[in-house]
Design brief:
heterodimer; A: 181 residues; alpha+beta; OB fold (Dihydrolipoamide Acetyltransferase, E2P); five-stranded mixed β-sheet; 10 strands; B: 718 residues; Four Helix Bundle (Hemerythrin (Met), subunit A); Alpha-Beta Plaits; 5 domains; elongated
Amino acid sequence: MAQDAQYGSQRFLTLTLGNELFAIDIFSVREILDYTDITRIPQTPEYMRGVVNVRGSAVPVVDLRMKFGLGQVERTLNTRIVIVEIKKDDTLSVMGALADSVKEVLELETDRIDPPPRMGAAVRADFIRGIGKHGDRFLLVLDVDKVFSSDEIHDLSRVLGDDAPPPAQQATAASDEDFFR
Amino acid sequence: MSDVDPSIALYIEETRELLGELEQGLLELETNPNDSARVDACFRAMHTIKGGGAMFGFEEISRFTHDVETVLDRVRTGELPVSRELLSLTLAAKDHILTLLEAHRDHQDAHRDASDKLLDSFAAYLPGGVATAPNRKDDGGEPPILRPASEESEYACPALPGPPSIYWIRLRPNPDMLLTGNDPVRLLAELDTMGALHVLRHGPKPALDSDDFNPERVYGLFDMLIATPCAVDNLRDVFIFVEGDSEVSIQHLHTGILRAADLDELLAAFKGHDDEDLEVAGSRLEAALAVKLDNIEVAKQRSQVLKAPEQRAAPQAKAPPAAATLRVDAARLDSLVSMVGELVILQSRLRQAAKARDLDAVTEVDEDLERLTDNLRDVALGLRMLPIGSVFSQFTRLTRDLAASLGKDVEFAAHGGETELDKTVIDRIKDPLVHLLRNSLDHGLERPEERQAVGKPPQGRVTLSANHSGGNVVIVIADDGRGIDVAAVRRKAVERGLFAPEAEPSEKELLDCIFAPGFSTAAKVSDVSGRGVGMDVVKKNIEALRGTVELASVLGQGATVTIRLPLTLAIIDGFNVMVGGDSFIVPLANLRGFQERFVEGQVRTVDTIERMGSMAPVVSLRRLFDVPGDQPGYERVVITEAEGETVGFCVDKVIGRQQAVIKSLDDCYRHLKWISGTTINGDGSISLILDVPQLVRFVRGREDSRLHAGEPFRTLPQ
């Protein structure tokens, strides 16, 4: 991503999770699928929704909303699965992200992306690459490699075990919305 | 060496293959020393390796191979008999070439001592008993050098003894040379047959499109450096017809060897000095040469200083394994291509039928497509299939060396080398097989005198065979040694607490103990085997390939190890079962049958069921996997066997038998060991393929922790 920075601006795909607007670097997005049946895989954390068939290969799908503690993505007409490519030790792995809706592709000036606040953001600070502004709305630019890194997923699966989904942090989410408005 | 020229990688690959052939040939010669076709094949292999070595910069290989080749040539012409010693020596040479091949090209010098030692041994077989290979120790340590022409046949002129000479030849052709029927190109070509020729053409030449340009004139002059073993008169003879009207001078420059790059550099010194007369040009060249020689001297000294650290660095400098390439039978590729052609035709037929809304035609296409897909799958999977013989041939050598080191006389026979197996399986089955063979030789077979004492022929016999059986490949390793002492195994098993002293385990159960970690009945530990590590690893490796391993033995008559492996790792045969909305594949290899059960009220995760007169544990997959949905009152029980244990799994429905193409699951699920992969069903949905042994282990671990946690409630409310 460092090499993109020199161009001055970057393109992002924006998507919504609940009321929050998130952005993913367009270069890590492979395709966007309509919601299809997800095959559940037992004994995984709840935000790992399972696998979907993307042209003959089983791609894991992460419920970003649940992962960030923003409730669960409900299936609606707008629900999409964003297939992203993640670099991991030279290999490219493919993951799906469940999003409430996918909005648009927009360009952001690199220098307009501010570092994330240390606290108070809707999601953990290390998942966020920065905060951009588009029109009068704020965007949380996600660090895709971090969000989907399997180590991260792994750790959580160990911590959570079989029980307890991550406690929904409704309270914090609400206050974060205040933060962004 | 990933940045290396692909042709070099190809050479390495090819040489590996040639060395394999060579080894096989040598071993066959051992049993049949008069097979002249074999000798020829060995010689040819050696010759090709040598030629390629020189071509691709493996100077040490070509230097080393030279003498070996000479010896083989003498064998070929009948001057030398095939002896066991000679074969052993040649085998050692083969190993050494492999070492050289795998060492980095720039670090081959580190192995030079080993080469020289082997060459000394070979010297005894050479005419006059002296190594003829140019000893690089004397001619300076700067590789790669221009190879001296030690073979008379290499150049078109008789070679003089001693190191080659480098001559400077200047040819200033008469501009009208072409009109006299001479051609500088032809002269150069002739020179080229006499040694390593480096040419620089320089001097004025009008542009091709200028009016001054006359295609029938020769422009400029040629400065050449040639490194040749031939006499100067041979060179002079080349110019015999042009000497009259063209200017030719031949001067001796240097006796010895220079790198090709150095020669080119020297030539470059002439550039732009085309009008200088001979004297000036000559002195310029000599000055340049003197500088070059000084540099070489310095480099030589430096390399001597650097030698020690370089030798230490050599092992790390090993070339990384060559890129995984696969040689495929051309016929298979052809059929693949023709099938793809058929596929294209089918597609256009389908389009027409779809356009015309002709259901009959579509059905027809579907039938054809089904047939084609089946064939296509078989051929595509066949591309990965290799005959197992490539592994077997390595074992011939292994048993030979091992038998010699153990002081045993062993006849090794391999059958069914043409049996084909998936490349991945072949790569991974080798180590377990090596281990089993070692066991047979070390523990199984007795020494010749012991064998005679019990009335067996002194020569032991180990056979390795492979054949197809159903969808499996069966590999059998059998020996006629002392067999396994079941009583000793029993003692040891009781000692280790695997069985209670009063238990009456069956012979099969006892033999299975041998696969337990750390189990060994060997009285003493040898350097070959007996440490008790290994059989468990063998079993684990084979199970990782979804295979099984069994041991049978008759005391005093030998032991047999039977390995069953699936043909391919890409497809698994299994039964599709449903639990709620989840679909799973139970591999056929583990499946033993189906039963049913009626449940009322609460369901326990682990329960028992009567199976053929005994109680078998059953696991409710619904509970285990927390499948959402209502518990039905009637369930099917899939009876499986894993690691000798019968376990049932309760499911809602059994859909039927299915060939599942295995798709591996993403890394983030790697902690779920009981899933061996996923497969895509006909309707696009995904089924999880269960790894039954792992699943059983998982359930057991869960139950244990539950019991140890003192949780009294194994029954959970529905």
